[in-house]
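Can anyone check this?
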Amino acid sequence: MIFKSAKINAFRLWGLLLTMIGMGLMVLGTGGIVFWGHTGKVFAGIGLVIGLIAMVGSLAIYFWAGMLSTSAVQIQCPECDKLTKILGRTDRCMFCRTMLTLDPDKANISADLLLDQRAQENVSDPNATKAPNESLSK
């Protein structure tokens, strides 16, 4: 579960990796001039071109993730109570990595049961903090 994350975060991770690989290839290619002099220019040229291609790929992935993020459905995570975005029918929370779904056939608990469980927890624990909506309404 450590390596599982939300789909949007996974796209951003690949964009970041391509950025780092592209920059690394550019720096190492330019370093070829320092180590091999005039013959290192060929390595520098190859490194700069491949690095530029990786950077353009990173730009495309970041743009794609941004466009997906604008059309993603926002829901409130039942575990951490933060707003998170879902791509597709199932996804993970961006913050606590809880599996979330919009498909009632795949859900193992309904929203009504979840609310009932929370109400019972608040009744059984008198020291529990108030929900944010209760404190704003007064």
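Reply from J.R.: I decoded it. Strands lie at 73-76, 83-86, 90-92, 99-101.
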